[in-house]
Amino acid sequence: MTVSCNGRPAQVEDLLPALVNYGHFTSMQVRGQAVQGVDLHLARLSQATRELFGSELDLAQVQAWMTQALLQAGQGDASLRVTVYSRHFDFRNPLAAVPVDVLMAVSAPVALTAPKRVRSVVWQRELPQIKHVGTFGLFAERRAAMAAGFDDVLFVSATGGISEGSTWNLAVHDGERLLWPQAPALRGTAEALLQRHWPGAQATQPLWLADLAGVKAAFACNASGLWALEAIDGQVLPGSRALAEQGRAVLAGVGWDLLGSEPFCGA
């Protein structure tokens, strides 16, 4: 992995603010210096910067640093994480206006496709609309699920309302439509691309664990891939592999935006 801060190799002092654990990020897959839905990733970064720091992010500069980080790493195909934080943030005075810093981490590419069995757990991320760096709780819940023999965890409310997975969004098929849970959650880039391009009927609506009794297929998705959910809480979903194949075919038809060609400053 290679890490840079504001366009230069990261130094120890650049990383010390990580101890405060206040910031946000987006992660994406890069193939041939191109990204699917780069406008969605930049919009996520821009919105969260306003919400957490009350400032504007220079998206043209961020895109230039993304391209630079990939070139310096020598990887046309890669996983790229862009983290926005501030070396000047003081938790004792969190309302102070401070400039933000941008950390680029380039690592090997991944493509998640393996089917999984998950269990539900009552849990809600803090500020679920933001992809923030406070990930302790969700990884602790995932670890507990794996210790119990599952592959991952699905978050629900105290009343059984489905929101999202640990690091992914959920879609289920009721035999007629593709359904997305309508609940406070991190809205993913893969979810948005699928909603833009899905060829059949779909809807976003409240979903409850009890509704899964009539569901035969489901998949999980994030920027690193799309995979079948073979079972939720032990309920087998026999159509999930076929539904996941359909989802991957939809994503395969989505265009890739070449980084550094045209800036997506309107994101």
Describe the structure.
This protein is of the alpha+beta class and 267 residues long. Helices cover 26% and strands 29% of the residues. It contains six helices and 16 strands. The strands form three sheets. Strands 7, 8, 9, 10, 11, 12, 13, 14 and 15 form a nine-stranded mixed sheet that branches. The longest helix has 16 residues, at 38-53. The model is unreliable at 263-267 (pLDDT under 50).
Characteristics of this structure?
267 residues, alpha+beta, nine-stranded mixed beta sheet, five-stranded antiparallel beta sheet, 6 helices, 29% strand, disordered C terminus
Please report the total strand number as a whole number.
16
**Taking Cα atoms only, what radius of gyration do you get, to the nearest Å?**
19 Å
Average of the residue pLDDT scores: 94
Please summarize the sheet with the most strands.
Answer: 9 strands, mixed
- Strand and helix order: EEHEEHHEEEHEEEEHEEEEHE
Percent of residues in beta strands? 25-35%
